Amino acid sequence: MKIATYNINGIHGRLDVLLRWLKKAQPDIVCLQELKSEYNKFPEKAVNDAGYQAIWLGQKSWNGVAILSKTDIKELRDDLPGADEEFTHSRYIEGFTGDIVVGCIYLPNGNPWPGPKFDYKLRWFNRLADHAKDLVDRDLPVLLIGDYNVMPTELDTYKPEKYRDNALFRPESRKAFKDLLDQGWTDAIRTLYPDEPIYTFWDYLRDAYGRNAGVRLDHFLLNKQIAGRLIAGNVDKEVRGWKGASDHAPVWIELTDENEAPKQGKIKKTKVKAAGPEKEEISTEPKGLAELLNELPKVPVLAAIKPMKATLVDEPFDQPGWIYEIKWDGYRALATLNEGQATLTSRNNLVFGQFQPINDLLESWDMNVVLDGEIVALNEQGTADFGALQNWRNKKNALLAFYVFDILWYNGRDLTGLPLRSRREILDAVLPKNSELIRPSQVFEVGGIEFFEAAKKMGLEGIIAKRADSLYTSDARSREWLKVKAKRRQEVIIAGFTKNEGTGKYFSALAIGVHDQRGVLRYIGKVGTGFNDGRQKEMIKLFEPLITKESPFDIEPDVDEPSQFRPRRLGAKATWLKPLLVCEVEFAEITSDGKVRQASFKGMRTDKDPKDVVMEIETDTQEIIGDINSPDDPLPIVPTQKAARKSRKGSVLQSSKKPAERLITSTKETEEVKVDGHLLKLTHLNKLYWPEDKVTKRDMFNYYHQVAPFMVPYLKDRPMSLNRFPGGIHGESFYQKNVRDKAPEWAETMPHTNGEGVDKDYLLGNNEATLLWMASLGCIEINPWFSRITSPDNPDYCIIDLDPDKQHFDQVVQAAQEVKKVLDAIDVPSYPKTSGSTGMHIYIPLGAQYTYDQSQLFANIIVKLVEKQIPDFTTLERMISNRKGKMYLDFLQNRPGATIAGVYSLRPKPGATVSMPVTWEEVKPGLTMRDFTIHNAIDRIRETGDLFTGVLGEGIDLAKTLKKAQSIFN
After folding, report:
1. 309 partner at 20 to 30 Å CA-CA among 21, 209, 417, 732?
2. Does pTM top 0.85 for this prediction?
3. What separation in angstroms does the CA of 874 have from each of 815, 835, 883?
4. Active site residue 106
């Protein structure tokens, strides 16, 4: 087993380096430090695609940590016991993987010494030591791995005299490390190299790593349960020389397998150039295949891998570079054959035990392989019958078949990094021929539109389109695999059943639902056809142990509700079930109130986890294909007529987030709703908040509910300034910051003592429930801080606020364009939004790397340059009386505690306007504040996605930017 640690020093900027090293070194477990990544921005997909599961503690600043593992990993804790309020720089995350407990550590430098940061470092060491005492004598193997920022001995630096007064080398730090070791831990690298200088960190001097002029900061501490398994280790110092690499290099150790003690003298110092596995010659495969396979990494069987998923789109298309397959109507399955043992598993790694003939045939093959395909039951016409698959043994005319369309692993070689076309060639070469039970799923290199029409005529469920060069991304909903359904099908949760008055059936209909974006079970109607008496009898046996008195839906539905298709009540009574059963239904359409119409039962889905059941919404084919279309494709897309009629505004990359549906559909004056698990009472819903526009308080709640998936990321962990308009936009308004004894118990707050010594609690905008609670107070507009509680003195962005007086909005646009010219000249990214009032806001990402004073200084430099270009109608005068009617270029907003209307915020202005992100292409004469209102904002977001994501990006290098500005503008 190979275990590594790597201070990546910015995972997004160095992701290519990380992936390159992972592919080359093939470690089983990796600890990463200094992620510089917010929690929800961690590149999980790329890590998964590289063959690793991960847990992480993401922070936008430099102190995030992560653990990667080739096997399943479970998080045990995300901090050390105890707390330290003064600083929050250090990070610790603990996971369990491969029967080993791994603690991943990042402890910062501690400079300057003496000082509070060094004192904090020693306090954190004490917390680590206390926790380590509980771990060292565990029966389980435990490793404490990471960047300790300590050089324990003179041997750990090339120049001890240089570091005498450095916190890394202070006697106090060294003693803290020694005290930790004395608990019974083994320092792995020093054990392997007792007398040699082994360095893990090199500064940015030319070829410092080549001259071995470094220090050792990254350590492996092993408890006694695992120390005896240590056999090798080294530093992949050549990685330090790769372009764009971190100032640390990856460090790794090798352990024997569990319960296999190393032989006498087996511990060795290794001089391995690259930590990847040895290649073995393969000569038994067909001609040409051996050479290809020999270039691939040698890895253990891909256990517990989950299938790659296709994105549902609304129509077929013709496009070079794509191939097409039939969308089979069955159970998705992975077949694993290793050392004569075969296993069939579902998309959620549930074992299929009912298809033993497939296992038996697999086990007769002389190979080790992982295949991806679909298990179906074929009727007399040769098409898949999903209903027959439920009980295929008892169906005389049902022929079991496993259609294989991909190969992921073969005789020890990982194939997922090969393009699909190559994987299919390997599959065709090695899959035994002429089997009725296991068959290759045929590939069609034809026009997608023609193929789809043929599939419809044949009564097939639909088609799958795949890019011929697509790699296999486990458990990812890929945009390079697309599915087009000829029939509207949906997996749903059975949450109850009904019986009509006077019926003799076991039940009349099923009450079905799906989860929304927050995991709440929503009722989507009933299905009353598709099962005969025999089927109903089987199903009622499944229902009986799940009967419950309470409805599992968020709001108990009226299961006997009349509709335009059934205007009279039938006396239906509901029996509720625990929401643990999944079935598949076919339906004609989704009605305007979110219910299925003309639904028919197709069969149970024992392969589907109820938690994963959501409404599958078709994505626009044109937008998907436009986003991933290769610039090398020789021909343009040939869409259907419907797609050709659709409006395309720019080439905006679509977000995977979608606006929610309306929260309140009734006309009641008061409603109680459950949001994020918290009950909210929303009152005065019919009150006109924007009287001229006939916009009510209910409309405001519905807007903030729908926009929450996009807005909350810009509110999370930020103190809020509450601007309250309880009487609507023309009523009295006031600001409120302190919510002590006013906010609900579940709301998260930040304690704050003002300059007069008064203790206050500021509300943190951490979730949708908090957003709606603010709205319930009459907070029409939402005002977050520029910085977060984790780094309150360091804003995430700098803002240029264009505040006009008597200017036409076209002049605001002109000023914004001048700001962009200045920023473009110094290579600074910027993101504009309308204020929703008379001006515009331009955001510049800082990544929480600088103080408010530095941000304000930078903004001041920018606006001075802009004012020189358009002095006739702009000014830097703060006092309104001194502006003489000119537009104020406001840079002073960049100060602690200041707020402006946040992105997607409504404004208390006639027209119910919204502060809306725009592309720079839209910032042109003719743009107005009334272009974006409560009436059209959600539809716009559905079209554009979130245009503001870059605002929370890594941030600019301010020193480099100022230097460039000086060279250009001086």
Report:
1. 21
2. no
3. 8, 18, 8
4. yes
